[in-house]
Specification:
The complex is a heterodimer of chains A (62) and B (828).
Chain A: H1 4-27, H2 36-50
Chain B: H1 3-8, H2 46-57, H3 63-66, H4 69-72, H5 90-96, E1 98-99, E2 105-111, H6 117-124, H7 126-129, E3 133-139, E4 144-149, H8 156-165, E5 170-172, H9 176-216, H10 220-241, H11 243-255, H12 261-281, H13 288-321, E6 326-331, E7 334-339, E8 348-351, E9 360-365, E10 368-371, H14 373-376, E11 382-384, E12 389-390, E13 395-396, E14 401-407, H15 413-427, H16 434-460, H17 462-476, H18 479-498, E15 501-503, H19 507-513, E16 517-520, H20 522-526, E17 527-538, H21 543-550, H22 556-564, E18 572-578, E19 581-586, E20 594-599, H23 601-608, H24 613-624, E21 628-634, E22 637-648, H25 652-661, E23 665-669, H26 674-684, E24 690-692, H27 697-709, E25 714-718, H28 721-729, E26 732-735, H29 741-746, E27 749-751, H30 757-792, H31 798-818
Parallel strand pairs in B: 16-23, 16-25, 23-24, 25-26, 26-27
Antiparallel strand pairs in B: 1-2, 2-4, 2-5, 3-4, 6-7, 6-8, 8-14, 9-12, 9-14, 10-11, 10-13, 15-27, 17-22, 18-19, 19-20, 20-21, 21-22
The chains are: A mainly alpha (62), B alpha+beta (828).
Chain lengths: 62, 828
C-alpha cells in the first residue's frame, strides 16, 4: 500500500502535464474556432482529386 | 391579344414548358419575364447568372455538388457592386493589414452571405478566382475571412470586388482591438474551466479513497496523505478557477447590489478555509471534492452563457459593419472613394442612386428623391433639388446628386442622434436579474442560519460547532441556483436565434417575460416601409402601358409600379422624366403610338391645362386618407388614377393579438403625418392606448422617458435611426428586420426575419424561459432546504454534501435543457 506515496505524486505530475498542455493549446488559439476545421477536413479530401485540371494548384498549405 | 397581356395574366396553355423553372444557381423559381426557353440553364437574376459564369470559368462547379439540397435555396447572391477603393488607402493598409513572409500581406474581413459549408468551400478557393490571393481561410465562429495576398499582383480592392462578385460582400473588421480583447477573455475563461475540471476529477479520486476508507477502515497516515493531496489540488482550483466568483462577490458587496456571486463566494471561502484548517489539524471533515465540482459546474454555466451571448453580439457587430463608411469625393474631374471620416467641410461628394448619404450637406448639382424613413419615419420619399439640405442616414432613390459637405461624423444630425443614444444607454439602470434578487435574500437567510447553528452548537457541543457551520455553508453554496439561469438562458438564446430573434443578453429575456406597454414605430415596423399600389380606378388594360413607361426609372413611385404590375416587353419610343412625373410615347403591337403622362396632380395639370372634376375629387379623397394619388393621362385625357400607400404588414394584426393575450398594451408613435397614422391604426383594428404622429426623435425619447417615470414597463419596437434613442431609453428596445444600423446598435433585441411575428415569438418564448428559470431555482432551493436541515441537526458529512450537490445540479440541468422555450408554433 505504501506504493501510493510514489504513485500519487506521479499521477499529480502527469495531470499537471495535461493541464499545461491544455493551457498551451488554449493560449495558442486551438479552441478559438471549433466549427470550420471540421468542415474544411471534409472539403480537402474531395476537392483535391475532383479537379485535376486545376491551373493554379493548391496553395493552401494548412 | 398582345404578348404583354398574355404574360401579365396567368396563361391557361404554355407554349413551351421549361424543364426546370428553378434558377440554376440559387434554386429559386425563375420569374416568367426571365425565362429563356431555348437555354438549358435558367437564372432568376443577373447576379445568379454572373456567379454561375465565374464558377464555371474558374473550374469551381463542384460548389454545386458540395452543397446539400437544402442549402441551395438560400436566396440570390446579394452584391453591393461597390468599388472598395477605400481599401487601397495607405492608412487602411497600415492599420488593418499584417505583413507576411515574402512581401505578402494579410487582412481580415467580415463576410456577408455565408450560410452553408459549400460557401466555406468556395470562399477558401478564392485563389482560383483571383490569382493574387495565396490563401483564404474562413472562421465560422467569428464570420471572418482571413486573406493572404500579394500586393504587387493586385490591389486589395480587386480582391474585395472578386469576393463581392461571388455574392459575399466583404467588410473590414472595424475593431481589431475589441476582437482581440474578447478572444483573450474567452481563452482565460476556457483555461479556468480546464483547470477546475482537472482539479475536480483528481480530487474526486482521492475523495473516493477517503470515503471508502471511512467505512472500510484506513490507516491514519494514508488518510492524512490524501487530505494533504486534496488540499494541494484544490488550492489552484479555488484561487485560480474560482477567483471570478470572489471578484463578483466583492463587487456585489461594494455596490450593494445583490448578486449570485456573493453566496457562492461565501460557501467557497468557508468550505476552503474550514477544510484547510482541518487538514492542518489532522482532524475534522474536508470538502475539497465538493468545492472543486462546484467551481467546475458553475464555470461550465458561465462558459455556455458567454458563448451564446457572444453569438448574438457577433451578429449585431456584423450588421454594424455594414454601414457605409465611404464617400465618393470629387477632386476636379476625378472621382475617388474615400473613408467618410477623411472628408472636410466644403468638399463635394457624389451620391449615386441606391446609395446611402454619409454626410450632412447641401445639394449643389442634380435632383432626386430621398428615402428619409429611417431618419424621420416619413413613409413618402422627399423630393430634393439644388439648394436643398440632405442628411446622413437617408438613401438616394432616383438619380445621382452632388452634395457640398457641411458636417461629417459626430457633427451630423445622425451623429448627434447616436450621441444621445449613447448617453441614454449609459444612464439606464442595470437590470437586476431574478436569480440575483433571489440570491440577495438567500445570502441573508444563510448568514442568519450559520450564526444560529454556530450559537446553538457551541452550547451543545463546542468541539463540533465550527464543523457544522462550515458544513452548512458548503451545502448551501448555491450551485444549482447559480446554474439554473445561465443554462436556461443559453438554451433559450440558441432556440431564439433559430426562430429569428437575437437577444444581446439574457437579462432582456427576463425583461420581456413580464408584460407592459409596447410602443410601435409605424413606418417599416407596423407597415412594410415601402409604397405599394393600393387602388386603381380606370381601365385595367392601361396597366401594362404604365408599367412600361415606369420600367426604367428609379423613382419610388416608379419602383412601386414595377413591383405591383407584372413586367412586359413594351418599349417606349420617347420618354422624358420631369420632377413630379413622366411623359412618354409608347406603341402597343397593332396600334398607333400614344402619348402617356404619369405623375402628380400638379404635374398633369401643368401639362393638360385643366383636370376633370371627378379626377380632382378622387385624388383629394386619396390624399385625405393618407394615400398618394398618381394620375395617368392618355393622349391628353385623364384615364386612370392610381393610389399608393405604405401597406400594413400581413402579420401585424395577428401578432399584436398574440401579444395582447400575454397582457401587453400598445401605443403607436410615428414621425409620419397624423392622417397616415390614423389610417394605419384604423386598418389595424387593434385597440391602442395612443397613436401619435409627427413625433421627432427627441419627442419619441421624451414620451418613453415619461412613461417610465410613471412606473410603466415600456418596450420600444422600431426600425429607424429616429427610434434609436427611444429604444435605448425603454426597458427593452426591439429592432425589426431591415432596420437601420444605428437602430440595431441601440436595440437590445433584434429580429432577423421580416414581419412582426418574431416580436410575438420573442415575448412568448421569454415568458416560457422565465418559467424554466423559476422551476430551476425552485428545485435548487428545495435541495438546499434538505441540506440545511441535515447540516443544522449536525447529520451532514462530506459524503452527503458530495452526493446532494451534483444531484441538485443534474435535475436543474435536465429541467433547463429539456424545456421548450422559443418555437415557431404559437402555443403560449
Amino acid at each position: 500500500m505504501s506504493i501510493i506515496f510514489l504513485i500519487l505524486p506521479v499521477t499529480l505530475f502527469l495531470s499537471a502535464g495535461a493541464v499545461a498542455a491544455f493551457a498551451w493549446a488554449t493560449r495558442s488559439g486551438q479552441f478559438d474556432d471549433l466549427e470550420t476545421p471540421g468542415i474544411r477536413l471534409l472539403h480537402d479530401e474531395s476537392s483535391g482529386k475532383a479537379r485535376p485540371t486545376d491551373q493554379k494548384g493548391e496553395r493552401e498549405a494548412g | 391579344v398582345s404578348a404583354a397581356v398574355e404574360i401579365g395574366t396567368p396563361a391557361p396553355v404554355r407554349v413551351c414548358p421549361p424543364p426546370e423553372p428553378n434558377c440554376a444557381h440559387c434554386g429559386l423559381p425563375v420569374p416568367a419575364a426571365r425565362l429563356e426557353p431555348k437555354r438549358e440553364t435558367q437564372f432568376c437574376c443577373d447576379g445568379c447568372e454572373s456567379v454561375f459564369a465565374i464558377l464555371h470559368g474558374a473550374g469551381l462547379t463542384e460548389y454545386y455538388t458540395q452543397r446539400g439540397p437544402s442549402d441551395a435555396r438560400n436566396g440570390t447572391p446579394q452584391r453591393s457592386k461597390r468599388k472598395f477603393e477605400e481599401l487601397d488607402e495607405p492608412a487602411f493598409r497600415q492599420s488593418r493589414c499584417q505583413p507576411q513572409v515574402g512581401g505578402a500581406l494579410s487582412c481580415e474581413f467580415f463576410v456577408e452571405g455565408v450560410h452553408c459549408s459549400a460557401c466555406v468551400w468556395l470562399l477558401e478557393r478564392l485563389p482560383r478566382v483571383t490569382p493574387a490571393v495565396f490563401e483564404a481561410r474562413y472562421d465560422l465562429t467569428r464570420s471572418v475571412l482571413q486573406i493572404v495576398w500579394d500586393p504587387t499582383l493586385a490591389p486589395l480592392s480587386e480582391v474585395a470586388r472578386a469576393l463581392d462578385s461571388l455574392g459575399y460582400t466583404p467588410h473590414p473588421t472595424y475593431s481589431t482591438t475589441l476582437a482581440a480583447e474578447q478572444r483573450k477573455g474567452d481563452r482565460a475563461l476556457l483555461l479556468r474551466l480546464g483547470i477546475a475540471g482537472a482539479a475536480a476529477g483528481n480530487v474526486m479520486l482521492m475523495a473516493l479513497a477517503l470515503y471508502s476508507g471511512e467505512y472500510a477502515g484506513m490507516a491514519a497516515e494514508y488518510a492524512t496523505f490524501f487530505r494533504w493531496g486534496s488540499l494541494a489540488i484544490a488550492t489552484p482550483a479555488v484561487f485560480w478557477g474560482g477567483n471570478l466568483f470572489f471578484r463578483g462577490g466583492l463587487a456585489s458587496l461594494r455596490t450593494r447590489t445583490p448578486h449570485m456571486d456573493l453566496p457562492v463566494s461565501l460557501g467557497l471561502l468557508a468550505g476552503y478555509l474550514g477544510s484547510a484548517v482541518n487538514t492542518l489539524r489532522g482532524q475534522g471533515e474536508v470538502y475539497f471534492d465538493s468545492l472543486c465540482t462546484l467551481i467546475f459546474l458553475l464555470l461550465v454555466g458561465r462558459y455556455l452563457q458567454r458563448t451564446h451571448q457572444r453569438r448574438s453580439a457577433k451578429a449585431s457587430e456584423l450588421l454594424n459593419a455594414l454601414a457605409p463608411t465611404t464617400a465618393r469625393l470629387i477632386e476636379g474631374e476625378a472621382l475617388r472613394e474615400v473613408p467618410a471620416s477623411a472628408l472636410r467641410v466644403g468638399d463635394i461628394v457624389e451620391v449615386r442612386e441606391g446609395e446611402r448619404v454619409t454626410v450632412d450637406g447641401v445639394i449643389c448639382n442634380g435632383g432626386s428623391a430621398l428615402d428619409t424613413s429611417l431618419l424621420t419615419g416619413e413613409s413618402f420619399p422627399e423630393e430634393v433639388s439644388v439648394g436643398d439640405r440632405v442628411h446622413a442616414g437617408t438613401s438616394n432613390l432616383s438619380a445621382p446628386i452632388r452634395v457640398r459637405v457641411e458636417s461629417v461624423g459626430s457633427d451630423t444630425r445622425l451623429g448627434r442622434l447616436m450621441h444621445s443614444v449613447e448617453t441614454t444607454q449609459r444612464e439606464r439602470a442595470p437590470i437586476v436579474r431574478f436569480a440575483d434578487r433571489v440570491a440577495g435574500y438567500f445570502v441573508q437567510v444563510i448568514v442568519a442560519l450559520a450564526a444560529f447553528t454556530l450559537l446553538v452548537w457551541s452550547r451543545l457541543d463546542a468541539s463540533h460547532a465550527i464543523d457544522h457551520t462550515v458544513a452548512l455553508l458548503v451545502v448551501t453554496c448555491p450551485c444549482a441556483l447559480g446554474m439554473a439561469t445561465p443554462l436556461a438562458v443559453s438554451a433559450a438564446l440558441r432556440a431564439a436565434a433559430r426562430c429569428g430573434v437575437l437577444f444581446k443578453g439574457g437579462e432582456f429575456i427576463e425583461e420581456l417575460a413580464r408584460p407592459g406597454i409596447i410602443v410601435f414605430d409605424k413606418t417599416g415596423t407596423l407597415t412594410e416601409g415601402r409604397l405599394a399600389l393600393v387602388s386603381w380606378s380606370g381601365d385595367e388594360a392601361l396597366k401594362p402601358l404604365v408599367r412600361a413607361v415606369e420600367a426604367t426609372s428609379g423613382h419610388p413611385i416608379a419602383r412601386a409600379f414595377q413591383r405591383s404590375i407584372a413586367g412586359n416587353d413594351l418599349r417606349c419610343e420617347a420618354r422624358e422624366e420631369h420632377p413630379g412625373g413622366v411623359r412618354a410615347r409608347i406603341a402597343e403591337p397593332g396600334r398607333d403610338a400614344r402619348d402617356v403622362l404619369v405623375g402628380s396632380i400638379s404635374f398633369v395639370r401643368a401639362i393638360l391645362g385643366s383636370l376633370p372634376i371627378w379626377a380632382i375629387n378622387l385624388a383629394q379623397a386619396h390624399a385625405a386618407a393618407g394615400r398618394t394619388p398618381v394620375l395617368v393621362a392618355i393622349d391628353g385625357e385623364v384615364s386612370a388614377i392610381a393610389a399608393f400607400a405604405d401597406t400594413i404588414r400581413a402579420d401585424a394584426a395577428s401578432s399584436l393579438k398574440r401579444l395582447a393575450e400575454l397582457g401587453f398594451q400598445f401605443e403607436v408613435l410615428s414621425g409620419d403625418d397624423q392622417r397616415v397614422v390614423d389610417a394605419v391604426v384604423a386598418e389595424l383594428g387593434v385597440p391602442l392606448l395612443n397613436a401619435t404622429g409627427g413625433a421627432s426623435p427627441e419627442a419619441k425619447l421624451a414620451t418613453i422617458s415619461a412613461l417610465r417615470a410613471q412606473g410603466q414597463r415600456v418596450f420600444m419596437v422600431g426600425d429607424g435611426v429616429n427610434d434609436a434613442a427611444a429604444m435605448a431609453a425603454a426597458n427593452v428596445g426591439v429592432a425589426v428586420h431591415g432596420g437601420a444600423e444605428a437602430c440595431l446598435s441601440a436595440a437590445d433585441v433584434f429580429t432577423t426575419r421580416p414581419g412582426l411575428e418574431t416580436v410575438a415569438l420573442a415575448a412568448e418564448g421569454s415568458k416560457r424561459t422565465m418559467r424554466v428559470i423559476r422551476i430551476g431555482i425552485g428545485l435548487s432551493l428545495a435541495y438546499n432546504a434538505l441540506g440545511i436541515a441535515l447540516a443544522v441537526t449536525g447529520r451532514l458529512d462530506p459524503l452527503w454534501a458530495a452526493v446532494l450537490m451534483p444531484l441538485s445540479s443534474i435535475s436543474v440541468v435536465t429541467a433547463a435543457l429539456r424545456a421548450r422555450t422559443f418555437t415557431q408554433s404559437s402555443t403560449p
